[in-house]
Amino acid sequence: MMNLKRLPIGRSDFKSIIEDNMYYIDKSMLIKEIIESGDVILITRPRRFGKTLNMSMMKYFFRNDQDNKHLFEGLKIWKKKEIIEKYLNKYPVIYLTFKDAKQEDFLTMYSKIKMIIRDVYDEFNYLLNKNILSEIEKKDYMRVLGLEEIKGNTIEEKRSNEKTMFEESIKKLSEYLYRYYKQKVILLIDEYDTPIQQSYLNGYYNEFINFMGNILGNALKDNEYLEKGVLTGITRVAKESIFTGVNNLDVSTILGKLFNDKFGLTWEEVEETLRYYGLEYEKEKVIEWYNGYNFGGKEIYNPYSIINLARNKGEIKYYWINSSGNALIKQLIRQSTAEVKTKIEELIEGKEIESSIDENLVYGDLDKSTEESIWTLFLFTGYLTWTKHTGEEGEPRYSLKITNKETLQFFKKTVVDIIKETKIELESIIQNIIIGKYKEFGIKFKKIVKETLSYYDISGEEPERFYHGLILGMVVGLSKKYIVKSNRETGYGRADLILIPKEKTEPGIIFEFKKYSIDFDKDLKDSAEKGIKQIEEKGYEEEIKSYGIEKIIKVAIAFDKKNVEIIVK
């Protein structure tokens, strides 16, 4: 029996995989496609789909300080002799990876970014000994390395100068390398959006985005020393001025055809892998569990799961979804609207949903609503796939479904758990009214409103719907003990929501929602008092009393956008 090649589990360094003769699925023709594409290329794919390995391959292909012919001799690109002669080991390469930039606050993230740039400067420190830098430039170079004091008369001035220096550092380095080699630079930036996503998750996004945007913007826009820039990430971060004004920009997302078979595995590559490791009998299960990704109309398989399957001799398991990286998804589900949660339940049942997809995802806008952002993020991170384009020409509307059995498990477990947690939390709030803790109800209800309000459109004609829906969500778990009647005719008018206990000893509850009127109400408290008065005057208690219930609790909730006043009697 032949000795099988080792699988590159946890390895993303191209050189070590080839030199150690490990199993490698040849994606080298990406180099040709990159050369033929725009001056700046942004590639977005889900995590663990081979982005870092492909960037590493390009680094070894282009860099001019090494002879790497031996790495490419057996690969498809080797047959393209013109490309080999013109491009192989012919360019200075600046390679940055932000994949480990996952700090929890601005200052430690700022320090981490400085350290990443410092390491790159250190790699080219031989430039200090060449006669290409002026004395001032040498001092600036030393400052980036942390070996020379930052200029400035005050601490604030020094901080400001340091920030500006790091924001311009990559562009400056490309200029120095151009001067030395008389050759423009290839700039490779892996996982550029990891620190941006972390800043959003940890609440310092607004503070951080300008710093990060300026580093990238300076390096990519009108940089006369740049031959080509390639960035990878999970999302295209827009409106942060990073790509605004970048000339000749090509963007490759999972919705487009560009590079659509170069990240993740095609069925032919999966078959080849299964055949090599004697696992062809697993074909059907592999299709069911790890298939389903649609990259620009090309059927793609999850490479991380396939490689782990081969290592574990065909054992079908949840490989990719157990490899972390879904904190943002969890947060968005937790804060999402009832409509989103309903659609998630439909997806779990195997149905498809339809949504507009915003390729220019803006982290800063995620707080402001939007269902579209949630489905876009689900799609770009690989938890959903698109089946067809349903919009008019040019309209980014798609049919979406859960990708495969592996991602279905994520929805069944993680998502359902989050929805359950939220329901339990909401139900506990309503219990405060039943047991007479009215103040506690008020405090917790206002907190929930503040946390979830931004995900609803309450500027429309019926902002009452938001509040009505929130209370309805709270009482839904009480259906064993209460008859819940929403917007029913009672007495002389219509109560917004009534709870009729099945046990006569328990209290009945009436909810009335009042929108603050600038013309008729003195303040929110006045609105709430009018709500109580309305319950009493219009005889909303009649239906509850007809069930033989004696104790009735009246709750008026007055609101003006996210400001709430509650009166309980």
Automatic annotation (TrEMBL):
Transmembrane segments: none annotated. It holds the Pfam family PDDEXK_9. Coiled coil: none annotated. Residues 8-243 form the AAA-ATPase-like domain. This is AAA family ATPase. It comes from Marinitoga aeolica. The lineage of its organism: Bacteria, Thermotogati, Thermotogota, Thermotogae, Petrotogales.
